[in-house]
């Protein structure tokens, strides 16, 4: 606690009959919460962003009834926003993955970035008629295999430049690499970043299927990217740090890229993101297990500013949280002003039942018992399958917005939102 206000948690469906989900959250300078994702219209997916009041109602002064859409590529089913940022003038940047050609036999996916004015109208001065299409890797559709660029999240830096984080097909190879890209404030690739506006990278020279997850811009301008990769059948954490010019920061694990197996084979661990504490240390969230098979638990580890594992975090350097012997997952993590960390994801109170989850740790990795008595809160929006993926803290540090979804039935997912006073 620490602020007056009432928590909101529940479904906020964008469509009553078709699929819609939120994947990302943000606050503007006025402390208004936003969430972004996708919604379907007769099976055609569109990018969507919504603005809310702090009581969880839609802000009707934004878009149509609080919701703004753009169908970046008509006829596609892949289109969905996973990144969201607010520029200094209040304009809203939404980024996601879209098909290059929805009618092709094999998918060639690109990244779409759209910008809305502060009233929810599409800003047609941005990109082409409000949307910029970014092709991370070349080659196009070769007619024999999927060639995918895939966005995981996006953010806006202090200069209103747009940072994109995700995965792309490795050039001239069959495996998948990770990428960080930077656009100018107007949606063009920023050639002051790694000379091309993008940095596509693999791990340790291994031809692996890498998974890039959440990233962020540090106060010093450096860029941090979380994720994981699979080595000999076991997932391992991968963290990377870049200088502001897009080159790898060699002061982090000697080459800028850390591959870490805190739960060594046959165990596994993944990182879906990291939070930067005031000490310069990084706290991860994700999921893993100590055995070779079975269910996974939410796992969190801490690394020093140079990439070395910090064994003072939680218990012997790791927090492993298991609710009831089923799958528990961390999907995003953010730092709080007092170096506590807030993790969002999902937890299973019983076999086959998945609830949305928020977990808060103390600055040293213990569960914060000032939050819901045990540091963890589960949310049941009325489904057996629900989760939170997007998270943002308000500029004054008093509110958390967490965005996700619930499964209504096999043909209908609904967006979900938590607005939590901190």
What features would you highlight for this structure?
422 residues; mainly beta; Methylamine Dehydrogenase, Chain H; eight-stranded mixed β-sheet; five-stranded antiparallel β-sheet; 29 strands; 0% helix; 48% strand
Strand content: over 45%
Which stretches are poorly predicted, pLDDT < 50 over at least 5 residues? none
> Can you say what the CATH homologous superfamily is?
YVTN repeat-like/Quinoprotein amine dehydrogenase
Q: Work out the helix count.
A: 0
Shape: globular
H/E series, N to C? EEEEEEEEEEEEEEEEEEEEEEEEEEEEE
Radius of gyration: 20 Å
Largest sheet: 8 strands, mixed
Distance N terminus to C terminus? Answer: 5 Å
The chain-level mean pLDDT equals: 93
CATH fold annotation: Methylamine Dehydrogenase, Chain H
Question: What's the structural domain tally?
Answer: 1
CATH class bucket: Mainly Beta
Which structural class best describes the helix and strand composition? Answer: mainly beta
Any guess at the CATH architecture? Answer: 7 Propeller
Helical fraction? under 10%
Please give the number of β-strands. Answer: 29
Structural notes for this entry:
The chain has 422 residues and is mainly beta. It has a single domain, classed as YVTN repeat-like/Quinoprotein amine dehydrogenase (Methylamine Dehydrogenase, Chain H), CATH 2.130.10.10. 0% of the residues lie in helices and 48% in strands. It has no helices and 29 strands. Strands 6, 7, 8, 9, 10, 11, 12 and 13 form an 8-stranded mixed sheet that branches. Strands 18, 19, 20, 21 and 22 form a 5-stranded antiparallel sheet that branches. It has a 4-stranded antiparallel sheet with strand order 1-29-28-27, with no helix packed on it. The model has no long low-confidence stretch (mean pLDDT 93).
């Amino acid at each position: 606690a620490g602020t007056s206000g009432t928590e909101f948690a529940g479904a906020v469906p964008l469509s009553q009959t078709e699929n819609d989900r939120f994947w990302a959250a943000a606050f503007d300078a006025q402390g208004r919460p936003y969430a972004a994702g996708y919604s379907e219209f007769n099976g055609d997916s569109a990018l969507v962003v919504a603005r809310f009041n702090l009581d969880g109602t839609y802000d009707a002064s934004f878009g149509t009834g609080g919701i703004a859409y753009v169908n970046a590529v008509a006829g596609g089913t892949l289109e969905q926003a996973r990144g969201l940022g607010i520029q200094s003038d209040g304009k809203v940047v939404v980024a996601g993955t879209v098909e290059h050609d929805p009618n092709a036999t094999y998918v060639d996916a690109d990244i779409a970035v759209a910008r809305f004015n502060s009233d929810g109208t599409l800003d047609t001065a941005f990109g082409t008629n409000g949307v910029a299409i970014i092709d991370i890797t070349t080659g196009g559709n070769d007619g024999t295999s999927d060639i995918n660029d895939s966005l995981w999240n996006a953010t806006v830096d202090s200069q209103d430049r747009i940072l994109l984080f995700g995965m792309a097909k490795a050039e001239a190879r069959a495996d998948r690499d990770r990428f960080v890209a930077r656009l100018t404030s107007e949606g063009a690739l920023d050639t002051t970043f790694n000379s091309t506006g993008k940095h596509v990278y693999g791990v340790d020279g291994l031809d692996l299927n890498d998974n890039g997850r959440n990233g962020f811009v540090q106060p010093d301008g450096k860029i941090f990217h979380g994720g994981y990769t699979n080595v000999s059948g076991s997932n391992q954490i991968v963290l990377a740090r870049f200088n502001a010019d897009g080159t790898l920061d060699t002061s982090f694990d000697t080459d800028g890229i850390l591959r870490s197996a805190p739960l060594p084979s046959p165990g596994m661990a993944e990182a879906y993101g990291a939070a930067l504490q005031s000490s310069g240390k990084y706290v991860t969230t994700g999921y893993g297990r100590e055995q070779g098979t079975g269910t996974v638990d939410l796992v969190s580890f801490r690394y020093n500013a140079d990439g070395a594992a910090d064994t003072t975090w939680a218990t012997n350097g790791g927090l492993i949280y298991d609710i009831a012997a089923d799958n528990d997952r961390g999907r995003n993590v953010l730092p709080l002003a007092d170096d506590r960390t807030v993790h969002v994801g999902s937890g299973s109170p019983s076999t086959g039942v998945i609830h949305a989850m928020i977990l808060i740790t103390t600055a040293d990795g213990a569960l914060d018992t000032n939050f819901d008595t045990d540091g963890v809160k589960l949310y049941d929006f009325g489904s057996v399958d629900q989760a939170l993926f997007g998270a943002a803290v308000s500029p004054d540090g008093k509110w958390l917005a967490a965005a996700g979804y619930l499964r209504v039935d096999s043909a209908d997912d609904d967006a979900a939102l938590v607005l939590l006073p901190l």
